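step=encode ok
step=design start
structure_in=
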């Protein structure tokens, strides 16, 4: 299979057509070999217009919403980025082409090991994969200019906002299924403002659910 041709078709047919216009974002998606970040048996499916399962309950996000979310973050060359839920590291590699460094947080030790090996083998030296609770973020390297939540969540914990630098952005998809919204949060003067940007449906991250309320 000609993966380079498949990558170009992905960008031209799936990403450019959904209002992704940033040259830097398009170049990142043209450069990063998506097929290297899926299980060997799934490589022929790496560039389809759909999510690709990389572990039980974990997916490589569909190219179009992933690119739109990356563009929404407006990552600058000097930015330090925290990716929450890096899975096999594909989005980490994309983010690393835009910012100065990426902390890729993963709760699944096997996925983290796979991400570490793949990113190192491909030369993405400005990505550090760390393991831990996704909802806790990764305080040792905070504050971050950008926090990128790689999957749908029901609620965003305060821990993530506390790790955001003043002037920083957090991008996440809140809600599940077709009613979910891509949201941009911006921290200014210690306060966080938010806005809904577009509707989308992406696979959920483990955790990030509201506590159940007692009904009397």
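sequence_out=
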């Amino acid at each position: 299979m000609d993966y380079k041709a498949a990558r170009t078709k992905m960008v031209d047919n799936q990403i450019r057509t959904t209002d992704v216009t940033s040259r830097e974002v398009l170049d990142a998606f043209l450069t990063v070999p998506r097929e290297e970040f899926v299980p060997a048996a799934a490589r022929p499916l790496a560039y389809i217009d759909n999510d690709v399962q990389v572990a039980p309950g974990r997916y490589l996000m569909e190219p179009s919403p992933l690119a739109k979310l990356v563009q929404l973050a407006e990552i600058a060359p000097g930015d330090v980025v925290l990716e929450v839920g890096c899975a096999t590291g594909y989005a980490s590699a994309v983010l690393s082409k835009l910012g100065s460094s990426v902390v890729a947080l993963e709760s699944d030790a096997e996925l983290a090991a796979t991400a570490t090996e793949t990113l190192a083998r491909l030369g993405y030296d400005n990505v550090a994969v760390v393991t831990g609770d996704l909802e806790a973020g990764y305080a040792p390297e905070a504050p971050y200019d950008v926090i990128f939540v790689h999957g749908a969540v029901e609620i965003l914990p305060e821990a993530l906002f506390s790790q955001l630098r003043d002037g920083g952005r957090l991008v996440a998809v809140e809600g599940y299924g077709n009613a979910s919204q891509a949201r941009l949060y911006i921290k200014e003067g210690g306060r966080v403002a938010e806005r809904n940007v577009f509707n989308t449906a992406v696979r959920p991250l483990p955790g990030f659910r509201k506590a159940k309320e007692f009904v009397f």
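step=design ok
step=annotate ok -> Residues 109-122 form the longest helix (14 residues).
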